[in-house]
Structures are given as C-alpha cells and as structure tokens.
Amino acid sequence: MRRFLALACAASPLLADPPAHSAWKLTFQDEFEGATLDASKWNNGYALEATGPGSWPDPANVRLSDGSLKLVGEKRAGQGKTYAGAAINNKNKFHQMYGYMEARIKVPNGKGFSAKLTGIKAGGGYPPWLDIIETRGEEPNHPYWYLHTASAAPGGAWTGTNLATEWHTLGTEWNADELIFYVDGVVKLRDKTVAPQLRMEMCWALELMVGGDSWIGIPDATTPWPGVYEVDYVRIYTRTGPPSVALQALPLQGSRAAKPTCGGWLASGRWWPGKSAFGWKAEAAPGAGKPALVSGR
Q1: Which of 184-188, 263-267, 283-287 has the largest mean confidence?
Q2: Which end of the chain is more exposed for a tag (fewer CB within 10 A), N or C?
Q3: Residue of 265 and 38 predicted with greater confidence
Q4: In a domain? residue 12
Q5: Between vectors from CA 58 to CA 54 and to CA 164, what angle results, nearest 5°?
Q6: Domain count for the chain
Q7: Residue 191 has pLDDT above 60, yes or no
Q8: CA neighbours closer than 13 Å in the CB half-sphere of residue 80
Q9: For position 219, which CATH number holds?
Q10: What is the separation of C-alpha 128 from the centre of its chain, rounded to a whole number of angstroms?
Q11: Structural domain boundaries, residue 94
Q12: 256 with 293: CB under 8 angstroms?
C-alpha cells in the first residue's frame, strides 16, 4: 500500500510526487502508521464544531490500523442524531496559504455516506470553506468539489474515478489565481472563478458524515454497515519556485447537472434545517438546495 519515492527538493527528501511543473517543499504529512491519532497534528472532531445534518462525531470512530486512518460511520444514535460519524482536523496545529494538498483515499459505498476533504479558514469563522472532495455514497464514481460562500456554492465534478472500489490519490493545487484538481497525478479540472475568495491561510479536515438531508441521502436497507472512509496519507507542500512550465487547460470532465437539494446550513456550532439567508435566520423551506454545478475554466 505504502509508496516511498525519494524526491530531492531543497535539502530534504519527499515521500510523494507533487505536480511536476513546479518545485515543492513538504510542510505537513501524516502517514497514519501508528495505533492512535497523532495529537500534535490533529484534533478529533469537526473543525467547524458542528454535528452535521444527521450524524454526530464519535471520537471512538476515529481509528488507525494497518497503516491507514479509518473514519467509521455507524447506525448508532447519540447527541440527538440517528447515526455516528467521525472527523479529524488540524485547526490551530497547521495552516498555510497556497500550495498543494494530497491524500490517498477510499470512500464508503452505500446510500447515506458522505466523505469530505475540506479546507477551512485558519483564523476561524466561516464561510467560506472549500470542499476539495465531497462524495455521496450512492455515486462513489462521481466526486464533487464546492466552495461554500455566504451567497452561493460554486463547484464542479468529474466521473470515471470509483473512489470506493480501489485507492486513488487526490490532489489540489491552490494559488492566488486558480484551483487545479488532480486524480492519480492527472489534471481533472481547473477553476479560476473562486481563487480570489481563497486568498487566506487554511487548515484542513477529513470528515465522514452519515444521513440527514437529501444531498447526502438517507441510509436505507441497501446501506452496508459500517461505512469506512480510509485515508492512507495526507501530505501538504509549499511551492519553492515559480512554475517551470505552463499547464494546458483541460475541458471539464464532469457534470453540470443540478445536485440534489440540501436541507440546511452550518452556523453557531450546529446544523440548522431550512434555507439560510446568511443572516443565520431559518426559513421553513423544504426544497432549499445548492445551486447547479458551474465551472470556471
């Protein structure tokens, strides 16, 4: 499972191959080799201190074994929720403005699971936050990305990469002008529309949510238990020099179809049902949802 490629960058060897068009330096990594979560790097729980729409983050559902992190989702009630999920974040332990973030992952397959890899404002507060990956368990071959702002949620998606059946390496390069999304070292899509809203230091979170709204989906008789979001490693780099070559823009390999509706939003450390006017005022709007997918290539 583990791959160790020696790569010279400055005076230090790196353990992975970030995008080859620039020079990079490793600034954060966790190979999840131990038996317990490294408390010097991670907090156990949601970075936004919310319980999520249908699941609560059980610290016991964050597990390490066989060289990988397991975030476990179960049908087990707690904190007023029907399901137990899991999450970790490095808030107040790491932050960086711009660079390249990479993780090797497998996500659970089954209705009602949503695995996420998210960037959050290091200084606290939200929005915005950036979901580099946001999956629905019933379509593990159709990962999404979204920037959640105070007024919209622009984003995109691609198909053809089944994140549940085998391991895949997902990476995102972010800078002042552009987001570039990679799968197994190949550029899947690029976006220049949201980068100006991400000119800030970010910390990172890995989350598994279960059920609760029509976007994630409600588990049913076909849902296998438990659901496990596996992470082989997380590595973050900073660029040490300007790009050496220009990347060619690629066409979007994904869908522009509207997403299923989403029945709430995060505020004040909890999930609120209904439609947000971002004055944090709840409205009884059963069909409130995220906008259709857009792409700024």
Answers
A1: 184-188
A2: N
A3: 38
A4: no
A5: 70
A6: 1
A7: yes
A8: 6
A9: 2.60.120.200
A10: 14
A11: 23-273
A12: yes
